[in-house]
Amino acid sequence: MIKLDLAHKNFIQQLEDQGRSKSTLIAYGKDIEQLVDHLQKKGINIITDIELGHLEEFMKKLANENYTPKSISRKTNSTKTFFRFLKEAGHIVDNVADFLKHPKVEIKAPRILTKLEYRALRDAARDDVRTFAIIEVLLQTGVTISELADINVSDLQVEKETGSLSIPKKSSKDGRTIPLNKAAVEAVKKYLDQERPRIDDSRHLFITKTGKPLLVRNIRSTMERYFKLAGVEKAKVNDLRHTFVAHHLSQGTNLLFISKIAGHKRISTTERYLQYIERVEVEEKTELGVL
What we know:
Elements (H helix, E strand, L loop, with lengths): L3 H14 L4 H20 L10 H13 L4 H20 L26 H10 L4 H13 L3 H6 L5 E3 L4 E5 L8 E5 L1 H14 L20 H15 L7 H13 L4 H8 L4 H5 L20
Antiparallel strand pairs: 1-2, 2-3
Helix pairs in contact: 1-2, 2-4, 3-4, 5-9, 6-8, 6-10, 10-11
């Protein structure tokens, strides 16, 4: 029998061994820490003593504390992942979390930036070489903010006007290679040549002046500042990913191609964008144009 604290520690260690991003480790860590704290206050300290009712009670408690359905759904996912780990590690026989239900979450329409908006964002950051490169990589490749923060210089293959970006395989996602268009290549080259500190042991592409990797929260706060400067309202970093997918689909890019480039687990995720765009009637493309 394993105690909750040790199981929690082992779970996070396994995620780290799998190469999960720091932001993922923090999110899972906090979610399960919150669950463990709730269970311990109920006098439950051993994994095998947990019943479905205890998990449902925890989720109900979160709802009473005004957590949004989206937040509770995320914590439900974390709990299910934790219990799958416990089952695979042989710590439990029956996985009670299999029967834990997600709350109903309203699926909002993605925020898709107009050409005027993303051009205004680009113009606002034009004199900030590093941020301009970050914007171009996000906008021209559709990577997530976590993937952006994890990019190493060695993941890039840059030629004169084109190139590619390799996103390594994670336990939750397959690896993929994303073509880089002229806009992305020019922005990255300028950053590498003019702005990025010459620090030999810094593997990450986007780093601070002291050579430390830019954290997700640093990137997010910087982007929020530039959205404000550009006058782009109610936009977040992930909306550049929405914009990438929607723009290319609207221009006739092949649905399956975009789905693979974006790293969507299911084609239905990509198909969802079709209801928010007008798709031009052209021969389908399997290449990325410039936004």
